[in-house]
């Protein structure tokens, strides 16, 4: 009976989350990034050309633009004059912005394009919710899974970004899924689980440049968790092959050179990031404006914009974890296998945010939120 009740509560929370996301998707105006993301994904799907991959890798944008292939009267991006200029300006957003204006944002009725794309983003949020429940339930039982799921489906930041086409929520979903499948492989290393974890890693690498932090996590946890090191290396190799497949097995010149390289377009977002880091970005915090930010921007943002119950429960979970670590005899191999996939990525990610001069907004913290919810699930867990 308890299993049935947990199942019904889970379905209720997932349906409630989906309802809230669809309501927001239908009632909010289009934001500027959405037009560019949709145009980038659509142009790649329609032409097979990655010249508009721009600031972020294409995985989430391709996913969001899939329904647009069924719309017959969207203008061909290759007919926009800026299409020919895009390869000459790989670190500039102007060609993509103008192509988005000519193909996507000028389309009427715009809801015909935006709502299907937003629904695809919402499906990523729904998938993320299901994985958060499953991972937390694996670790802490059904009650722990339900607490983690409850924190996620009621989080205003997750809800907001699940209702728009953006790369941050997609990155959070892909990173969480990749780590979940990697954790399952660490627990029972079978060949199918190895392949699944590798494919998920490659897809995550195709969402945002920050997902590259998954690679040291996989290698380090695999090594310290006493798995034959060739296996984590093979997992990363499968991820690299998947990423290459995401670029249509492209072999092109590295930006600024004539050297052929697999998935050369994947380096464009890293070039954009390097330039962005050098130029800085306007940021506001506590009454001040800066171009290169503050080291404490994200801790302050996390403290101010994360719901207070979530913060309190997270602190309690950290205290409980520390207390259990002191009470129980140390089995470091088991602890690394259990805790490494869940905690090491947030640790690396937090360090990079402290060092980053790009203080664009709370949305850059989304990849660590699902992992924090899963970690907090132990408070209600029975294991």
Average pLDDT for all residues: 92
Order of helices and strands: HHHHHHHHHHHHEEHEEHHHH
Please provide the count of β strands: 4
Q: Which outline best applies? A: globular
Distance between the termini: 19 Å
Proportion of β residues?
under 5%
The description of the largest β-sheet is: 2 strands, antiparallel
- Helical amount: 55-70%
Q: What is the rounded Rg?
A: 21 Å
Residue stretches low in confidence (pLDDT < 50, at least 5 long) are none
State the helix count: 17
Structural class by SSE content: mainly alpha
Biggest β-sheet: strands ordered side by side in the sheet? 1-2
Secondary structure topology:
Layout lengths: L1 H26 L4 H16 L11 H7 L16 H4 L8 H10 L7 H30 L1 H12 L2 H7 L4 H21 L3 H15 L8 H11 L5 H17 L4 E3 L6 E3 L4 H13 L3 E3 L2 E3 L6 H9 L2 H20 L4 H24 L13 H8 L7
Antiparallel strand pairs: 1-2, 3-4
Helix pairs in contact: 1-6, 1-7, 2-3, 2-5, 3-6, 6-7, 6-8, 6-9, 6-17, 7-17, 9-10, 9-16, 10-12, 11-12, 11-16, 15-17
